[in-house]
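Handout, page 2. Input:
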Amino acid sequence: MVSASCFCDWNAMLENQYQYELLEAGCDEAGRGCLAGPVFAAAVILPRDFHDPLLNDSKQMTERNRDKLRAIIEREALAWAVEAVSAARIDEINILNASFEGMSLAAARLDPAPEFLAIDGNRFRTRLEIPWQCIVKGDGKYADIAAASVLAKTHRDEYMRRLAEAYPQYGWLKNKGYPTREHRLAIRKYGLTPHHRLTFNHEIDQLEFPF
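Output:
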């Protein structure tokens, strides 16, 4: 087990941002691998002296710490924005392009406007006339991308919790739309909702695989 002190020391190694010549926004998304619900994307411009020992890739954080960091980021960021791209739009343009679209929309809403985008991942396309750089596993390397990952994840989880109230049989309160065994069994029993991504694989034979 990693001690609390080791956890904080490890996270202290996060660089604030990728470069320091231009005003940078970190960008990330949440929900690409889900069977239901939108993909959420966030863009965040942090102060250059921002530091929080809890900040990390949102997938490596507890829900409690993500929620705590969300409040801090939204209060202390120079600018932040979150965008949701619907399941219908995902079906129309595919999940990869929907992720690009969400990050572009979020970045376009920032005020002040960013001069550079640090993108989590290995691919990106945008119509924005802003220089950008893809960084593989960037949410575990740079604070502004990690902050974007926290906002995208917490805003999406909040949305799926609200959606679960109308569709409790799919277990979205717990699985948030991801392809868990519980979720796939519910699809087999109850069918698809208007919030499911029709171009994703919901077939029964997927239940043969461990979850």
